């Protein structure tokens, strides 16, 4: 065997073990008994120790030194790019620190969930301090004298920096704020009212997942506190949650199906290799957001969903498909990021980006986080946070150490705007198909032009290859202004 073949065989096993660790995380959220949390924390730490040791194994360094990338093809060079980056980054983080982060964040997840249920920020702060301190140590090791927060962003969106993100957000904010103010001053569509039993929500949500091509032979849907997608290749699982307002369930599901479709759509040639996963969280989010918003909340698809709602729940107070389209896209005051409309969603992300950047750089103390959140929210949205679960405790991300993750949601929205523009140009009769609940032309185009390639290209090049143009915020802003201008008669 060549050095490349030996390295890829070793990497195959490492990727398989990573999938096992991911399944432990899924199990913890979906079906693990509550009392198992302390043991699961030890199990997660043990798995992380094994994975960390493999990622920095001296044999990997020796193989990398022996391989001449110039002698490799495009796919093999891309595999090397990912493995080299993982080896170099992982080698910078001490094994005991990696294991401690895995242990503490596993425990913190349960503490956060209980604090959220109890509306008790103080119960979570000591644990959050531990998580922040550990992640700062990791960031300092990775940055090697550079910007700590940039080092964290690089885990989720390679080649992106906080300065670039801040510049993008600053350019987007004025038009988003202006659109929000105009929309909220206009007459609003009807609100959804009625009784929507959880079992019927779950029955319909499975139908929605199937309508977007989710492969149930290689996946499943479960209920959790905070929806997510887990796994890749032949085992890609999604979760959702029910509530009094069924759109929360339906669109959380469609969102997670977008993530899952990306993973399920990657070429099987890349299975259990570095290319067999989505290339970045921003690109990943582009898939979940275009499924959820440009497709799932469009006039055509909501017309089909309106009929499914009537068949499932009977008369629920909305009389026409046009009224239902307005109800689905109604812009409301609200606290919850995952339930935010397209107009306001990015404002939620900008808040989190600024706060977590300050935390990681030491400019904001954990004890001051709740007050900083509440002040910023009141400034951006014009009203006060009413309880912690609607404020600083609403998201799971910080409890599990995902600092640098939040900005990728807005990057995903930007990428989705670019993809939607290219998709509409490529499939001009798309709405006629979506009106029948048939998303195959859209999902097929995304699979052919983006999903199948997995991690083959860099994030920016992935979008450029799919759309024929470099990523830009303009298509997203133009789409939002046109859609909501029409809906609200602006």
From TrEMBL:
Q: Which cofactor does it need?
A: Zn(2+)
Its GO biological process annotations read: proteolysis
UniProt keyword terms in alphabetical order:
Carboxypeptidase, Hydrolase, Metal-binding, Metalloprotease, Protease, Zinc
Q: Pfam families per the record?
A: Peptidase_M32
Catalyses which reaction(s): Release of a C-terminal amino acid with broad specificity, except for -Pro
The record's cofactor note says: Binds 1 zinc ion per subunit.
UniProt superkingdom: Bacteria
Name of the featured protein: Metal-dependent carboxypeptidase
